[in-house]
Amino acid sequence: MLWPIIIQPMKIIKLFIFAFIISIFGCSGKSEFTIRVENNMPIYDSLFIRDLVTNQLLVSIPLSDSEKEYKFPINKPINATIQVKESDISYITILKPNSKKIIVVDSSSLITKHDKLDSLANFILQNNNNMFRVYGAEIFGEDNPKRIRHLFDSIIVTRSKIINGFKNTLSKDDIEILEFENRTRAYNFLFFYGRWIRSYSLDNHFFNFIDSIKNNNEINKLSPTNLLYKYEVQFLRQNDSIPSINSFLSFIEKQTKNEDLQDFLKAIYIKEVIEHPQYWKRHRQLFTTPSIKLALDHEKDNKYSSLISTSTNSYFHSQQGEKAFNFIAKKPDGSEVSLFDLKGKLVLIDAWATWCAPCIDERPDMLKIAENFKDNNKITILMISVERSIEKWKKYIAKTNPENLGIELIIEDGLNSEFGKKYFIKSIPKYILIDHKGNIIDSDLNKPSPALEQFLKQELTKL
Length: 463
Description:
Blueprint: H1 2-24, E1 34-39, E2 46-51, E3 57-62, E4 69-70, E5 78-84, E6 90-95, E7 100-105, E8 110-112, H2 116-140, H3 145-164, H4 172-197, H5 225-238, H6 245-255, H7 259-275, H8 289-298, H9 305-317, E9 328-330, E10 336-338, E11 346-352, H10 357-372, E12 379-385, H11 390-400, E13 407-410, H12 418-422, E14 430-434, E15 440-442, H13 450-460
Parallel strand pairs: 1-7, 11-12, 12-13
Antiparallel strand pairs: 1-4, 2-3, 2-5, 5-6, 7-8, 9-10, 11-14, 14-15
Helix pairs in contact: 1-3, 2-3, 2-4, 3-4, 5-6, 6-7, 7-9
């Protein structure tokens, strides 16, 4: 009874998408790796290309230099995002050695021109997101693991047929990348659904799709977390718990014969659990300052140690008792506020953005706290937006905070700024408390609540 429900809509989607892809593709050739930008919107300032896995900035392109070419070396395929500084528009691109990309920027879109590989990669991403719009009530409603598996297995099959329709115009490597992206997008959600939403036992048959994830294929570097999730399932099917970081690092070594991939996975594992502990609840209690230092010693010869050090340095700098980084942020009128201006006061920071749903949900509670402390000159509450659109931010705060409670500030693209790095802001909202001497009290406070308000009152008694 399930097949008629799933397959018929998929056939319609398939025919529509197939026709759409054919209509937008042109020809492309190969050459030395080059990025060239065709900017039809000179109001934009800069374009950034970041590694999707590591978030490292690969290149920053000033858009005032119309149609200028930029070259940089890469030795392996990279999953990356293209973003315009002043816009929320983004686009997935797959960078490969000996390739060329032409980026077209206009007021409402951002694409790589005549690029079948990128168009299909973005189709897979958008198609995955469409699943939640079409089947959202089903996916997040009744707990039916067989149905969810069947739904995503079906979309993998449908997308695979679309991808293989381009076998004559894409290289074998491109087809392999797209098939990997196809499975990865589906499996990534299935892991999230099983590990996070439903919290299934890892012995549950729901997770048996892990057998399709190959341990030693270098293509896993394009999206390594699924392989790490697979190792977690396997480890906990053999053991009651994960006793230490190093025990899991050793398990990665045992399962991965490809030494380069092995080093990469270990680096990404440490980076991921430090930066996104909410997705690694079976591991995060292991990541204390002493245990992280032991892991760093274990991985001192790791060829990807720079990925580890970037995360661990920010982590250590954001811990209790560390000197708080002095940032500068702008008010709506363009004037500036620095943290050092506020020495002598307790400073509560709310890092947020208008595009962040949890931030918006919790903002009324933060404004309530700001109202309750508005007459106390020993504490300052900074609500710092980390988004790129200043105008959108101004309109939103004018509507939601007409009484000017606290101090509304913005640090443009703050997640990727020194502010974001020094305070280890990998997700928002994030709440940080700094004492009157400029030292960090807590860089990961719980959300605004009467309990947080009581904690602030206790800290104020120490002044």
